[in-house]
Write a structure and sequence with these properties.
single chain, 588 residues, alpha/beta, 9 strands, 58% helix
Length: 588
Amino acid sequence: MYQNLPQHENNGLLTPDSEQPTATIGEDAEEDISEKMPQLGQLMAANFRNGCCSEKMVKKRLPILQWLPSYERQFFVEDLVAGLTVGLTVIPQGIAYAVVAGLEPQYGLYSAFMGCFVYALFGSCKDVTIGPTAIMSLMVQVHVANLGPAFAILSAFLVGCVVLGLGLLNLGFLVQFISMPVTAGFTSAAAITIASGQVKSLLGLPGQSNEFLESWENVFHNIHLTRLWDTVLGVATIVILLAMMQLKNLTGRWKAAGKYLSLSRNALVVIGGTVLAYLLSMGGEPPFLLTGNVTSGLPSFQPPPFSTVVNNQTYSFSEMVSELGSSVIALPLIAILESIAIAKAFSKGKTIDATQEMIALGICNILGSFVSSMPVTGSFTRVRTSRQHFYYIPKAVLAAVIIAAMFFMVEFHAAAEIWRTKKIDIIPFLATLISCLLLGLEYGMLVGIGVNMCFVLYLTSRPKIHHRIQRVHNSDLLIVTPDQSLVYSSAEYLKYHVIKLSAKSGHHVQLVVLDGSTVSYIDSTVAKILASIVEDLRLQDRSVVFWNWQRSVQNTACRLDQELFVPLFHRGETLDELVKQLDNRIEA
């Protein structure tokens, strides 16, 4: 009875007030469905006038202007102690991460130098410290191993430019495409790779390796050259570090002392190892492999290298960027991810201005490159010094410091949470972990994101489609309800199921109701497919109505074919009212 429905009403759907139906489609209705493009020029000009030069915006972009005037002097002593504690940590940590990056030890200290001052001016989270991190060091190592420190310094400059640009353009949302399983897999793989690379130093073995497989191949190839006292010192250092970590759990009068001893554990074991090596070397050859000379003095302030010479081959700026390859994109994303994640962890319920964090991080890297820094980012743990004493730092001690830190970067707890919460999410976790170990961190991250995006695309292309046959006023209706918005990848899937369900419903069902109450968006492909569904159902001698579709969705479809879609959209009625209205139209 519904196959020849009259098609002359717009049912009030294209008027400003959908509750006030009109009988014709005029110029107002036509204007109502038009799609207006945003006036970007006017919007940017308004934002510039109202925000860029205001006092509020200046204070927002220079947070020191907000916190310094209100700083309470009674906190100065506590902050001084905290600063000294972090300072004791940064020396062995900087040297260790320089070793991970394949650089001379002094570059680790250079990298911790500029960020502290810049972040104090531009940073928005008081608990974040800026410096070299294990993951950033490992990702730089691939290029530094064969090409030298100039590429690490240029990486810092490029990272700063990219991060600053993304911050100014408010593009921090890009890191949201890196899911928790991918992040956990990447972090775990990085920790395993870093620890694997330090096993050779822990055992006193020769050789150089950058990747997970290479590291263990080198270890097994040279295992017969293991140095006894390096191994003893390294293993003992790991045991001491793990034991000192537990001091933070002391209670009573030892609580404060335990806390600071635990925080200073890296510095204390390095100092202890250095003293031991110095004393044992006084009688002759030291029993341990030593770090060697560390260049003294502060780094000179100069532009980063935009060209360099390696093995008598000159690299121009474009050639250096080409050699850095995908790390020009990967390093900034990892830097942003680490820094913002740590800022959120310390936020204590406060909102984090991701844009400001990115601006601060970008400036830290740009200015850091002027003092020979490698790429830096936010870290949980971060004096003019007489550096000749660093000569006696045993390599096994530095390796132990790094390996002990990596124990807690492997995210076993995250894997357990993922498995408990959504078992299928373990697939991108494992894909990222295994790919990073076998292919390298940059490609592994891309594989993990790709696998995760496949999951997202599959979900968008396969919406759940609920259906039921309901009898209303002596008429059987097939009601089909997709459970989400519809995009091009789901269009044919929707059509297939609608036509199939219609064909299986029997000849007694002459009206198909497409319920769009959960659909908030469609694209042009879906609109085209909806039009073809209407035509295909008519070939089955069935009519179709679109029930409870949102206004923006209706407008999209009507812009494709206003004459076809306007009479088919109905909104606001119950099914009883809908059938009555259709019956009245047929009788009329």
